[in-house]
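Study this one:
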Amino acid sequence: MRDLLAGIVALVLLVAAASLGTTLQFYRRRRRRTRERERAHGRTVVAELPAGDDLVLFSEDESTFHYGERSITKDGVMAVRVLINGSPIAAATSNRHASATAPHPTSFEDRPEGIARDRWDVALETTTGTTLVECGAIRERVSQELARAVFDAVAGDIERRNRA
């Protein structure tokens, strides 16, 4: 009787492991297809950002940044700011929009997440409004690196446009 029960438990564990492996392969293939789709559109993937149970891509092409389904024209970016817990810690501003309303320091309300974690975001201030690119609060280093990659891409573009 004990051997039968042990066999059933082993079979259940084997089925669960196979299910997890299949699910992991499914997500890996879907991620690869999404990245290939971005490349087919002539975009460069800057970062894969956590969003709920999935990942959202932040990518760029020659004239536009893409955050998930949102498109942000590079020419319309007035400022970019790295936010930690809703407060700006680094910024880059465009000289091209000096005649427009000067972008004010961005800050967003901190979202309590139950445990002490630093939330890293990047705010892109454009002529049409502000877009908050949520980089997450996974672990400080991971989210910080994602925010830095997004900030560096946008700030680098602002710098190139300021020189032109």
Observations:
- The chain has a mean pLDDT of 83.
- The CA atoms of residues 4 and 47 lie 50 Å apart.
